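To: structure subgroup
Subject: Chain for Friday's discussion

All,

I'm putting the inputs and outputs inline so they're searchable in the archive.
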Amino acid sequence: MEETILVCEDSPEGILTAVYRAYEWKLKPEHTRIQVGAADLCLFAAYREVTADAGVAGKVANTVKRRFGQDAWEDICFALAAEAKEKGQAVYRTIAAGLSGRIRGKLMGGLADDDIRRTFELSRHVHSEAHRMLMFVRFRELEGKLLFARIEPDANVLEFVMPHFADRFPLENFVIMDVRRGIAGIHEARRDWFLVRLDREERERFSSMALRYSEEELEMAELFRHFCVSLGIRERKNLSLQQQFLPLKYRRFMTEFDAPV
């Protein structure tokens, strides 16, 4: 039987809309695949473009929460934030497995199913990446008392990171920029945070902003670097062990690794 491939954008709304369309068009899960973004064409397959629809995606989200609970929905949200081409298909088949009634107990507990296990693996990876960002984000004070931080995570975790810092710094104006994806989380003092997608000009403007540190920030950054060095014990220096706890890929925007002391 010919396979149907639903092509959607790489976003939670895009993938969940594709899931909705698969059921709306009465496609069989075993002969349907959700493809995120463009890819090489396959022979003997029918392609259908799916346009993201926030309203339709919301219906799928409500169904997942109602049928499988908040925990399953959170796992799916984390999986959708992963950088993996197969995430759309894994999430679709996971939801389909749950709706079929063949999974007993909690949906994400059905790890004998390959797609549920893959969704679980993606979720755990993104959850771990988000947790690391909470530890490794470094804010720098710019001119005008704006707190600015840059990150470059392996997954699209900014929406999971922002609530933590909004709760921690409710009276501060701050921005966290994901330089890899061109997304910024913006929080205005005493107001809710929001995400924006930056165009090229806006990316350049934010990048130039990152170099305009306040005088107090330059002084405190230097003190902080000296503090980090003074904590170390030269005789017990173990770079291999250090990299296990703090991999090199996270150090690019960390104040203590900015420059030699």
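Points worth raising on Friday:
The chain has nine helices and eight strands.
The beta strands are 3-8, 32-36, 45-49, 140-141, 147-151, 174-178, 183-187, 193-197.

D.
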